[in-house]
Write a structure and sequence with these properties.
28% of the residues lie in helices and 24% in strands. It is built from 6 helices and 7 strands, in the order E-H-E-E-H-E-H-H-E-H-E-H-E.
């Protein structure tokens, strides 16, 4: 049976290698911690249907490799993304320092309007923290990002990060700031009845049952 949903959003999970991006995705989709996580080679994919503000939204999530040697491969997946989780490791100053580069890539290659939430992962390792909550919060504010600290191990704030991002995209659609009909918006209508009649450029026509 095919899934029914109101919207489909394309999401990215980006950030340096070893920050726990694949574990975040796995925790969100499977509701459990991924024990044997190796570095992602290229790109991994997952999807989940969630309820956001009374609408059913399918999230298509691309988990990109953080290692520099895969950068050219992963960059091609940025195109047409509506939302992104930008992940760093709170116990690694190095991953935090790299955030500006990742952010530039996302806004240049995906879309200037991409909705991004900054995730300080590994909140369960608070004793080994190298980046304070306040410092990251300030970075998020300066760069107009939402911000949460997450733990892929315990699941804390993992679902909330994805939902918060999706909620913001939905609000922007409702306010007219984002147009799902625009090419490369990273948003598609799932339910044909939601599609606004826009003249000849509407893509797929539903077969008529009359």
């Amino acid at each position: 049976m095919s899934e029914t949903y109101d919207f489909l959003f394309k999401f990215l999970v980006i950030g340096s290698a070893g920050t726990g991006k694949s574990c975040l995705l796995h925790q969100f989709i499977e509701n459990k911690f991924k024990q044997d996580s190796n570095h992602t080679i290229g790109v991994e994919f997952g999807s989940k249907v969630v309820n956001v503000g009374g609408k059913t939204v399918k999230l298509q999530i691309w988990d990109t490799a953080g290692q520099e040697r895969f950068r050219s491969v992963t960059r091609s997946y940025y195109r047409g993304a509506a939302g992104a989780l930008l992940v760093y490791d709170i116990t690694s100053r190095e991953t935090y320092n790299a955030l500006t580069n990742w952010l530039t890539d996302a806004r240049t290659l995906a879309s200037p309007n991409i909705v991004i939430i900054l995730c300080g992962n590994k909140k369960d390792l608070d004793a080994d923290r190298e980046v304070t909550f306040l410092e990251a919060s300030r970075f998020a504010q300066e760069n107009e990002l939402m911000f949460l600290e997450t733990s892929a191990l315990t699941g804390e704030n993992v679902e909330e990060a994805f939902l918060k991002c999706a909620r913001t995209i939905l609000n922007k659609i409702e306010s007219g700031e984002l147009d799902p009909e625009r090419m490369g918006s990273g948003i598609q209508y799932g339910d044909a009845s939601l599609r606004q009649p826009r003249g000849p450029q509407t893509q797929t026509k539903q077969p008529c049952s009359c």
